[in-house]
## 1
Amino acid sequence: MRWRNPTGGPLLKCRVMHHIKGRIRIHCGALYYLKEYEQDILSKVGKLYYVRQVKISIITGNILVHYDPGDINPDLIPGNIEEIISLFSIPAYKRERKEKSRITVNERRLQEEPVNKLLINVIAGAGSLVFALLTKKGKAGSTSIPERLFGFTALSSISLSMPILKSGFESLRENGKPNADTLSSAAILASLISGNGISALTIILLADTAELLTAYSMSKTRKAISEMLSTGEKYVWKLLDNKNLLKIPADDLKKGDRIVVHTGEIISVDGYVEKGSSLVDESSITGEFMPKERKVNDKVFAGSSVKSGTITVFAEKIKEETAAAKIIHMVEEASQYKAQVQNMADRFSAQLIPLNFALGTIVYLITGSPVRALNMLVIDYSCGIRLSTATALTAAISTGARNGILIKGSNYLEMLAETETLIFDKTGTLTEGNPEVKSIIPLMKGISEKELLSLAAAAEETSTHPIAHSILNAMKVRGYRVPKHTEIEVFVAKGVKTEVKQQVIRVGNAKFMKESNIPLDVTSHAVSKLMLRGENFIYVAKGDVIAGMIGIMDPLRENMKKSLNRLRNLQIDDIILLTGDVEQQAEMVASRMMFDRFESELLPEDKVKFALRLQSKGYMVAMIGDGINDGPALAYADVGIALGSKRTDLAVEAADITIQSDDPLTIPAVIKLSRNTMSIIRQNFATSIGVNSIGLVLGAMGVLPVFWGAFLHNMTTLAVVSNSLRLFFFNMNKNKLN
């Protein structure tokens, strides 16, 4: 189910709290997040014909309505209120997600720690521990106070643990709450004071090792995403004022520089073409499969590759400002898009940290043993839970990136694992997005298929509509030439008109023909035949008579049926088709692919409303699409998935997960990845809590020495982090085949 508001219900769902005749109090969780829209909501509700007075309490999430009992059935009022509040769904959802993602305590940002630095820390820690063991004298606690605090072991421990000590102190100073580093700091300092320097070094070494594995997973994720997006060349040709070229590192570029990009090179800046022209492949950024001609003053983006020609580009955005770099940054940061399980791990850890301090105090008061009390500090739940959860989610995102799947935040992995409803767009998603001419039906006496197709091509020659492309492609395949014609006149959403050999040629839909006073009575049999085949069709008129019809079909993607079957096996029990196509087309595809239901002739806003209706009932909804008309629905869905190499840039921007491959089998594979991720996280929770609980009990009883308590805790942390790293080896291709 989707994220809940503080009362536990779906965010947009309204329910009656109290009702007497003429007065009804309704609760809606979305109101908690709509303080700045309060007056707008009051105004809209107040305009309902039956409303006498209305009040809103943002604090309680309630709306009080005084109404005329004779004008309305009170059972209908919650639905009316729900519809009004749904108009503000975007800001409500955004604020809810931000609230749910709020970090409870300040933790060190391991994604910003260089792996090399952490590796040096581990090596230094291991060396210090080995040296301390070799020079160890007597029992713990037998050394003098100066030796405990200023000896080699103490100084090396403090030096190596400075990041931990600093983070632990800053969390207390800024938030007034301890974090995992606060607990580790207390354990390290207590170990040193009690003469257990070996324990302190052990705590530091194993903690650094776990953090190294976590940072390594994050580093691999960044690398995989960067390689997938190919953000630019390492070296570029800079154009100097004297018109000479100088090869420089791309990192040395500045705004306002001019670079020359040759055939086969990748553009390293966002800017515009100042000189020259070329064919540019922008698929890594916009998703547009076909290369586009870029000439003077046209925009180009970093990560695009020049297929032919040479251009001079004026740099408007460089490095982290480019569109490609922002995508990478968005994925690797995604702090406001943390998975709920990750937030739960952070909160759970934060709540258990004070428990460790409390247990230490209680054990000391009962036993009088500082050693047993120290065990309550060196054994904690937070490190293993927090680090293993972050590592699992990061590793899964990295695995996706290596396989051409861009996951923009760990929360989308979690929601995808819980998804129970999938919505598919039709054109370009279920189908290939390449309409083909399937039928040519002459209806005028003496006209051939060749002539009919040629007349249609003459009228469509300059059009960019997919149907026009299919007709022109059919001409090329057959080796026909487009006949000479006059200027083409376009009638938006209806058709086109031109003249061939002084005959007016019209190509378009039924509405266009009727408005042109061309009778369609001769087409009824052909229409039935084309509809039965599931083909879209257009009319071709010569003069004032229908010359014939052309049937066009967008073939279904290969493996789409197999993909839907696998989704069923994954217990996705509600698969829906939404399309702008006519009902007959939608029904045929839905029946053939065995969808649970379908909606046809929808506008983009209709798809959004459909998704929101499902969400308001508490369903977790994933939307899969590719086109510009899918953008709003992709943005509104809990998880928006853009599929295929021909998806539009708006779809990529709006989507939460972008699949570069055209293979539909990637969809069930990425759902398997998300579910495997959540399964490993649950395993880590159980292991961390179980093993550390046993350690705490044994430590309190005095059975487990401090050194072995620290060893047990940190080895458990290493074990669960290593378990998370298994996701780096998740085989996407194998899961496509099975």
## 2
Amino acid sequence: MNRLAPIAAFCVALLLAGLCLGAGAPSGSIPSTPENGDWMIDLLNAEPATLNPITATDASASAINDYIYESLIRRNPRTLKLEPVLAESWEISEDHLAYTFRLKRNVRWQDGHPFTAKDILYSFDRIMDPRVDAAHLRNYYQDIEKIALLDDYTVRYHYRKPYFRALEFCGGIPIVPAHVFQEGEDFNNHPIGRMPVGTGPYRMLKWETGKEVTLVRNENYWGNRPHFDRILYRIITNPTAALQVLKQGGLDVMPLTPIQWVKQTQNRRFQEDYRKIKYNTPSYRYIGWNNERPVFSDRRVRQAMTLLIDREMILNKVLFGLGTVVSGTFYVNSPEYDKSIKPYPYDPKSAMELLKAAGWERRNGDGPLMKDGTPFAFEFLISSGSKFGEQLATIVQENLKQVGIAVSIRTLEWAVFLQRIEEHNFDACTLAWSLSWESDPYQLWHSSQASDKGSNFVGFRNKEADGIMEKARTEFDAEKRIRLYHRFHAILHEEQPYTFLFSTDALVAISRRFQDVNIYAMGPDPREWWVPKALQKYREP
């Protein structure tokens, strides 16, 4: 599943496989086996709207829920293969229409109730309930005909037609405890959104709005004991303030902005306390044009917007060249991304020709761009705390002003910003997508996802594109699927529902006291991290 993130929120993603980073203490003082204790203090640069794993859509909620909730299977960060978690084993029918999972019998929810197949059925029913805010998930399960409970610990999914990612989504379904919900309750606003109950290695201790979220080790966890006593997330939306907290020792992990990476973390003391890590990320930043707004309903206008934005200049000036300009929705280093499709250049002359063809003209040299007596003007929405978003919007505002287009910038808190986006109540916005290991663009681009709080919030609708995405879902031959996606890439390039910006490098500072900070193809796995007793900073009260 693709996760929505504030424009500066990337911390973990696609990395250099096999890199291991020590903590910087003398090698003779590091034990040969991991030791338990200490806390990990991480940064949230946006407060989650909810921690209900079925309705949550943002990267902040995903980061927290990864420690609280579990599913039937997961992708091993070392091998990239799917492996059991709450499932004991699974079977797939030859026709790819039936998926049977046998569950572990020793798992309990954090309130002591046993975990059973009934929880899976309840969670599936909530995902498919149109009253539940789960459109971002619903599309992945829409071809499931039914779920059969063979007994309390065996569940079978029946598909109407094959789906190449069926195992991943059947096994990766977000699961909530059925027993905590009462019939007739409002699922979207249930208290579990603030006080989650999972099966995972950590449980919620407290959530102080605007300040921090604290998780404590689940001492009754069914699996291997985690190393840290607590994981604490500090909510700091301003990256400059967050860096000051980091330098004072109040954070252990933090994504750095490019200017922080290049200019603000070079001193000796910082290098002694933190290790800086840079790696590629399966993600991209973009400007979304609301295709349902009359001003952006014409693809020639959207193409012109891209031609009027000097992405190479922005990448080099604002991001210090730490990324790659992209032309489509797939991860730039994946085979699904068609490298023969080059990003549009910065070309104001061609842009003005397209705008004129679409009916927009500037009647005098310095007047506004007009069509049918209406000036070209729109509002650019950004989330607070996004320094890059502010810089980007300001550059776009100035560039478009030169050709007679008026841009007003509005900054909103993340929760309000997200609500406006989901309701399609915006002209243009800037955001980022964190991508899955395997590509399925249906969630972001299929026309069915352009309503009911779906992820296609720019309202992109294209019959040929819909057909390609539908066909690709049933294609198990990877090469054939890649060819379909290359055609889809070409359609997006022509239609420009987004101005695709950059696939950027992840820039992260990690405390040197942490051991076994391994960097895998899907990113680091903090569950492996630990701190030698001699270097531990925090003790349980």
## 3
Amino acid sequence: MKMKLGLAILALAVALPAESSMAQTNPRNTLVVLREIDADRYDPARSTARSAGESLYMMSDTLVALDYDMKTIRPLLAERWDTSPDGKTYTFHLRKDVTFCDGRPMTADDVVYSIKRWIDPATRSPVRWRAGPVKDIRARDAYTVEYELEQPFGELLYQLSLFFASIVDRNSVERLGENFGVQGFNGTGPYCWVSWTPRQDLVLQRHPNYRWGPDFYQNPAPQVDRVIWRISPESQTRLAALQTGQGDVTQYIPAIAVEQLRRQPNVRMSKQDNYFWDHFLGFKVDKPVVNDPAIRRAVNLAVNREAMVRAVWFGTAVPANAYLNAAVTGFDSEAAKLVPQFSPDQARQVLDEAGWRMGGDGVRVKDGQRASFLVYGLQTQAGQQYLQAVQADLRRIGIEMRIQLWDATVGWGRLATQEFDAFIMSYPYVTATDSFALYFDSRNRPTPNRMNWSDPRTDAALDEAKTALDPAVRAAAIARAQRIIAENNVWLPIAQEQLWVAASSRTEGVRAHGIYGVALYKGLDIRLTR
């Protein structure tokens, strides 16, 4: 293992010379962003891909923005807002200087159209629930929007900061139809659509009128003329491009390369400490073997997360010793204490006391049932590596875990079935309630509640967390939900990723943001020195 690691670092050092002798090849004042994969389309209401959000945050705006702390809501298209005493109506007061890329002024009618289009069942948005229990959205005048809910929804402002809630131009949507976000796009963002060659380049140009960026940027207007989002599937090619002037910035950095890049004098690195992107293994709690709480607890006790994360992520992730990142709004420290920590001896004791006896083949047996379960997941390098580590740890305590990984083209379909006993997933979130309401509400079975977790106490806590007017009551409710889930070991938390962004020597002002996994967000402070 050490020899392989050393060879990998050596190969990386060869690919990344300290100083490039090649001339800078990018066009003047054009930022080239390198990424691993493309999106299927750039329609905010119809794509949940991070790769779509990366560009949509630059091409469009939302009513509100989320600051770098991932907690504070800031004005964006709405310069201020009011909430009714019953928590059911939000009144957004819009800026009056906003235009779309084609120069048309944005008004309240555009906001109403965009949100209603998002939540319209005909749009088939997979995330329309994020808009809350909408009763009606209406324009009170040209620059005032009333957003009325059936019941209070304390998550609303956080959800409206996500790219799904982007304001789009109705004329462009109706003109392009199904090809909106494929053949063109018209938004109010700092950059405007020029062209898209799928799986190659998405080209954007500066919005000449834009000056309404969020106040956590030093510059309210874009600083570069063009942005090219370039697909570069091979990690070594992406990293070498930063050194040879063929690329300017990327967040798609192999974990093993981060420390090497930090030592490169012509690469600038930025890290977001408040990054909420976690990996976990979830149990289908109604399937044989994993329906036994003793099995789920033993799995949590048996896995050496610290060693596993160190071996897989090389210091670019931390062990997930809780269901949520401690920096997220709504995190409950008492729930975190309920997550079992590494103790193989205690895991064996739990299984012994539950009647799981060691079989002749090294796998425990109870009532004729072998302690064996099947886990599904998408085929990724990290997933394959950490599942093998989990598999080895479980074998030592007498549990057999069988692994089946799928290519993403078929994997999502497989993960919607009942064929498996457990599964792995990684995901972004913005608050504790956002995460738990998505995954543990019984009404979200069979997906995304793939655990088939159905518990009236959990549902009641989540409903209260979403609807209570008093922030303290909401916090207590989501804490209660976290404790219930932790006590029942519904997941094996795996890792909490860190977000690193690498930029070329000519690129200044890059600061990792991280909303929904997106590093650059608006990118307003980014400038090029040559």
